[in-house]
Design goal:
The protein is elongated, with a radius of gyration of 17 Å. It has one domain. The protein has four helices and no strands. The protein is mostly helical and about 130 residues long. Keywords: Membrane, Transmembrane, Transmembrane helix.
């Protein structure tokens, strides 16, 4: 489980940093803007990563359905912009992209580890 959590958090933070850099290059802002974008997207990625890691571990233990991972991350991605100021409208597509990337990362990790564990259990039983 520890490996799943660390892998999940590392990959989601990497996705957040990549989206921040791509967003910065697209709008060609200053270096101060880059620092703010990196901070913003890394904080969102950590929220998505923590939620995804928790639900991934629950799925690996057969205690949560797989669809719960993208549903939870998607709900967070929808509620965050609605609960904040309207100034977030220009980056809503970047937030949606980050949420989709984090949902795919978490779901992929959960499926991969669950399949490997199930195949080991089947090999031991059979």
């Amino acid at each position: 489980m520890f490996a799943a959590v660390m892998l999940n958090l590392g990959l989601t933070l990497t996705a957040g940093a990549l989206i921040a850099f791509v967003s910065h290059r697209r709008y060609s802002g200053s270096t101060d803007d880059l620092a703010r974008l990196v901070g913003f997207f890394l904080s969102l990625a950590s929220v998505f990563g923590i939620g995804g890691a928790y639900l991934s571990c629950r799925h690996i233990q057969n205690r949560a359905p797989l669809w719960a991972i993208p549903a939870a991350i998607g709900t967070i991605a929808i509620v965050l912009p609605l609960a904040s100021s309207p100034n977030i409208a220009p980056v809503i597509n970047w937030i949606a992209g980050l949420a989709a990337a984090c949902a795919l990362i978490s779901t992929g990790i959960a499926v991969t580890i669950r399949v490997k564990l199930d195949s080991r259990r089947n090999a031991e039983v059979g």
